[in-house]
Design brief:
CATH topology of the largest domain: Vanillyl-alcohol Oxidase, Chain A, domain 3
Radius of gyration: 23 Å
Largest sheet: 5 strands, antiparallel
Number of domains: 4
Shape: globular
Number of helices: 15
CATH superfamily of the largest domain: FAD-linked oxidases, C-terminal domain
CATH architecture of the largest domain: 3-Layer(aba) Sandwich
Distance between the termini: 26 Å
Length: 504
């Protein structure tokens, strides 16, 4: 089967001939990739056509054409993930990068964004107005909308919360082409309120993570934004060693070392109780050596990393804390004093770090981690920090069984990013392999998921077939939702029913 000529011409009439293509080069380019390439998209094929709409109304028409001709479709934007790569033939890839709608409400502190607006684009406009948002760890090139409806992870979540906290009203084209408006957008033209006065179905839009195009297309969302300091963040350096210079009278980094993971968890809980800092996050030794290898490439990294591993102290846990004088310079002084008192109380050490940033405000240096290995996949958990101690221990034990071919992390701590002042946290262990060792990654993922079921780990990339029975039969509810909203099974099938990580 191929795309019918009548369907192709109908799609051309919607967006114009220049914005639809079945050229092999365009189709291959739109297959997508990034995070988990070769693992979650192991069966990926090029889409049948690529189409680039500019408005929500055009998307509605495209989806109605797709339903008329029974053609599957996948909405995508700029992202660092292979989750939306097509795995069946004749897919309509709806590329949303032309949808660059952006409105900023300075009075009520929210922005309205289309899928084509990246974090760097939004942040640049906000800085001009004395406002700010966050930059996710996956990179500032990612779509604000796509990131928030998928996961919304960023370590500034220590104060701002996980992504779902910042999503306000929503416009959503359902798999049959109908337009659903959530929150205040359902009755008004404003996006200031997600809870009402209209329906709030944001938990259907994304729970643990988003539906990955399996329940239609989110075309516009309201995003909470925040006031910022009047001082400017100045760019500094020449690529590949570039950074933002932070105003030292308002921001100060501290590098803290705690003797064990358990003590580090208690330390982070206490910082949350004190409600200080803009950002609190552990720094895995692996990441430190990645940062030190800028401009040196993979060879430079592996030479230094192997030397470190010979004498690594596996108990120590390094934590970075960004003290922030949000309201005044006095607040910065207060936060520093509280931090140093808490560090002393828990038997740690602290030293001031350079007043610079490469990861949290305007860019994000996550992409440099690629040179560790040709393929990678993370074990990610969003749960309490205490639960994280158990899941991290299990993941480390399983990783040892496959090291090599998994890159050796020397049993050092994974990434810990507490959110909402420690009320929840993210634990992430990155597993790298050579391009030819993807089966090892898939086997490790399977083993980790089996472990999660035994210990109650709250995995972010669970498979409904594995977890449904243990998690209140939610797989059956997902099937009912999919059948209700997508009766023709055309919206990125079979998402969100399964992750395609495991064999039957």
């Amino acid at each position: 089967m191929s795309i019918p000529k009548e369907a192709y011409e109908a799609l051309q009439s919607i967006v114009g001939p220049e914005w639809v293509s079945d050229d092999p080069a365009v189709r291959i380019a739109d297959t997508k990739g990034g995070y988990a390439t070769g693992v979650v998209d192991v069966n990926a094929v090029p889409p049948g056509i690529s189409i680039q709409p500019e408005t929500g109304e055009e998307i509605q028409q495209i989806i109605k054409i797709a339903n008329r001709y029974r053609l599957p479709f996948i909405p995508t934007s700029t992202f660092f993930s292979a989750m939306c790569a097509p795995t069946i033939d004749d897919v309509i890839m709806i590329d949303l990068k032309r949808m660059t709608q952006l409105e900023i409400n300075e009075k009520d502190l929210y922005a309205v964004v289309g899928p084509g607006i990246s974090h760097s684009m939004l942040q640049a406009e906000l800085f001009k107005r004395g406002l700010m948002t966050f930059v996710p760890t996956c990179g500032a090139q990612s779509s604000v909308l796509a990131n928030l409806v998928h996961c919304g992870d960023a370590v500034i979540g220590w104060r701002f919360g996980l992504g779902y906290r910042r999503v306000l009203a929503v416009e959503w084209v359902l798999p049959n082409g109908d337009l659903l408006k959530l929150g205040s957008r359902s009755y008004l033209k404003d996006y200031f309120w997600g809870e009402g006065p209209g329906p709030d179905l944001r938990a259907l839009m994304r729970g643990n993570e988003g539906h990955e195009g399996g329940l239609g297309t989110i075309t516009k969302i309201g995003v909470k934004i925040f006031p910022f300091i009047p001082e400017k963040l100045e760019p500094k350096g020449v690529s590949p060693r570039t950074t933002l210079k932070l105003p030292e009278n308002r921001m100060k980094w501290y590098n803290v070392t705690m003797p064990t993971r358990e003590v580090a968890v208690d330390f982070m809980y206490e910082l949350g109780r004190c409600e200080i800092g803009l950002l609190v996050s552990s720094i895995p030794p692996l990441f430190r050596y990645v940062a030190r290898s800028r401009g040196k490439g993979a060879a430079g990294f592996w030479e230094n990393w192997k030397k470190f591993g010979e004498n690594a102290d596996k108990n120590l846990m390094d934590i970075r804390v960004l003290c922030f004088g949000w309201t005044s310079e006095k607040q910065l002084a207060y936060e520093e004093k509280v931090l140093l008192d808490v560090v002393a109380e828990f038997g740690g050490t602290a030293s001031a770090g350079p007043a610079t940033d490469e990861s949290n405000f305007q860019s994000a240096d996550a992409v440099c981690s690629w040179f560790i290995g040709g393929r990678f996949l993370s074990e990610v958990y969003f749960e309490s920090l205490d639960c994280g101690l158990h899941t991290e221990k299990g993941v480390r034990e399983l990783a040892r069984l496959r090291t090599p071919p998994l890159a050796d992390t020397w049993d050092t701590p994974m990434l810990w990013a507490p959110y909402e002042f420690g009320h929840m946290g993210k634990q992430e262990s990155l597993n790298y392999v050579d391009d030819k060792e993807i089966d090892a990654l898939r086997a490790h993922e399977q083993a980790c998921r089996e472990m999660d079921l035994k210990i109650g780990g709250y995995a972010i990339m669970e498979d409904t077939r594995m977890f449904g029975k243990a998690w209140h039969n939610y797989d059956q509810w997902m099937k009912k939702l999919k059948a209700t909203f997508d009766p023709n099974n055309l919206s990125n099938p079979p998402k969100p029913l399964e992750r395609l990580l495991y064999e039957e």
